[in-house]
Design brief:
heterodimer; A: 113 residues; mainly alpha; 0% strand; B: 285 residues; Cytochrome Bc1 Complex, Chain D, domain 2; 3-stranded mixed β-sheet; two-stranded antiparallel sheet; globular
């Protein structure tokens, strides 16, 4: 009985040790980009659905166009630049949505009318 | 006790939210006009149609000098030519709008009960072209602005008279436009109302902000800024072109000209100037 317990505990420790010794594989820049792109696109659509999209995220006449430029950078293999641009686009999309929600009850009453 | 307090608070919030949007278009108009009359006690109602030039004597002098030989005249003439030129099928704009061009501008914008949407003058110009097998105009400038300016010119002296019918869908469109006007948007967090209700008469960079009351009377407008950009000095543009420009300036993504958002905004915006005299097209910086 004692012997079995020792073996079981030993096995458990071995398995735990093995799994602990295998660190989680970090996401590649490309994977990080793909995840960020999906998140940003969803955030932009959410803001747009509330009429709250900001100018510089993807509007074709904006000089900044963070989202399309991020996609272009990724296509050129510059994932670091792409991630940087996506972080701005995602932030702006989230702010646009929050702003639209905060302004849901906007009306003349706010101006004393 | 806590539950009761929560219920009361919720009821209060609902009530205040309802109060905020429950005023009728007529009540909105009365308060809107009274606000501007109180803010600018020296102005007569029709002075508001002159925008910022009603507020600043120097700018008014410059503007009056421009209006002596108005740069928009040649484009109004082009609009007249478009009006007179028959379509390939032998019909003309008169078959869509009636024979008297001076009676056109005052009918817009209006609510169409069949399609359940706001109909604008520019929308009907392109509808007329399409129905007659012609290529529609681009929405913001060029021929559509020329023809619209011609209609405005012919209607000078008549009063804006937008009707918001007692139809829940029409009221919904009006409320949508109203909300758009008062809601802050864009990276600069500014509403149409911030510049044109709260701060008219103040400068934003070198520009004097105009009051929202009377803004629509002089559209399509000839802007010196737009004329500079064009190759042939054509500075005429539609109201929706201006909406897009304003949204862009506060760093919000502009909507397309003649989109539902801008048509609803126009419905509210024009209604707020009911009773003011049409003086289109106007000259602005």
């Amino acid at each position: 009985m004692m012997k079995k317990t020792i073996i079981s505990v030993g096995l458990a420790l071995l398995i735990a040790g093995c799994s602990a010794s295998q660190p989680e594989k970090p996401m590649s820049l490309k994977e990080q980009y793909e995840a960020a792109l999906a998140r940003t696109q969803a955030a932009v659509e959410k803001a747009a659905s509330m009429e709250g999209e900001w100018r510089d995220i993807r509007w074709k006449k904006s000089k900044k166009r963070y989202l399309p430029k991020a996609i272009e950078a990724a296509k050129a293999g510059d994932y670091e630049k792409a991630l940087k641009l996506l972080s701005i686009a995602e932030f702006q999309a989230e702010m646009g949505y929050k702003q639209a929600m905060a302004e849901k009850n906007a009306g003349p009453h706010l101006y004393g009318l | 006790m806590r539950k009761i307090a929560t219920l009361l608070l919720s009821a209060g919030l609902v009530a205040s939210a309802t109060t905020a949007i429950a005023s009728s278009p007529k009540e909105d108009l009365e308060k809107f006009r009274a606000y501007f009359e109180q803010k600018f006690p020296g102005l007569q109602l029709d002075d508001f149609g002159n925008g910022a030039y009603a507020l600043d004597a120097d700018k008014r002098m410059q503007w009056e000098a421009m209006e002596e030989f108005p740069p928009y005249d040649e484009f109004v003439d082009k609009g007249r030519e478009i009006w007179e030129k028959p379509f390939k099928n032998g019909k003309s704009f008169a078959d869509c709008f009636g024979k008297d061009p001076s009676k056109v501008r005052v009918r817009y914008p209006h609510w169409d009960a069949k399609t359940k949407q706001v109909v604008t003058l520019e929308g009907d110009i392109n509808k007329c072209l399409k129905e007659n097998g012609e290529k529609p105009f681009k929405w913001k400038k060029g021929p559509i602005a020329w023809l619209s300016a011609f209609f405005g010119y012919e209607a000078r002296g008549q009063k804006i008279n937008v009707v918001i019918p007692d139809d829940p869908d029409a009221i919904k469109a009006y409320e949508h436009g109203k909300h758009f006007f008062y809601a802050k948007r864009g990276q600069l967090n500014m509403a149409c109302a911030d510049c044109h209700v709260k701060y008219p008469g103040h400068f934003i960079r070198g520009n004097l902000l105009s009051p929202a009351l009377g803004q629509v009377t002089h559209f399509p407008v000839y802007r010196a800024k737009w004329a500079k950009k064009s190759k042939d000095g054509d500075g005429l543009g539609t109201l929706h072109r201006r909406y897009g420009g304003c949204n862009k300036q506060v760093r919000a993504r502009p909507f397309k000209a003649q989109s539902k958002v801008y048509r609803d905004l126009e419905f509210f915006h024009q209604y707020m100037s009911n009773g003011l005299t049409i003086n289109a097209p106007g000259y602005r910086e």
